[in-house]
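seq:
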Amino acid sequence: MGRLTVLALRAVLAALLVGTLFVQTVMVPLLGADLDDVEADAGQVRAVLAIVVLGMLTVQTVLVCVWRLVTMARRGTVFSYAAFRYVHVVIGAVVTAALLVFALGVVLAPGEAVAPGVVLLIGGAGLAVFGVALIVLVLRVLLAQAVARDVEASRMRAELAEVI
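struct:
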């Protein structure tokens, strides 16, 4: 990876991390105060706010893991078994995010405050997030193949060095 690419990606990751922290610390309390004024079920409001905070936490987890993977790629060590730890955490965080989106749909479904079409759209969004987890899982399989080939190439180089 080029230096400029890494810097650009890290700038985007840092901006997203700051944005999610802003949402958690500023926007969620403001949203909670606004929703207290509306005639809504307090339990439902708390559940929605908890889902938003947990969702931001899953995004932050993915951002940190991607940062670490970019660092490994820059150093040339991404094709190692150490990268799997971060990939597994990303998969878990994305699956958790999908479950949180589905939970948001479940929380908002009862009553007439939210239209059924909106709940259906939330379910579709949850399915899309779950699809992202499956894509990352496929990429994990590709990483495993690359690591296996790298290990095999290292072994063959060592055997060739012994012969020479």
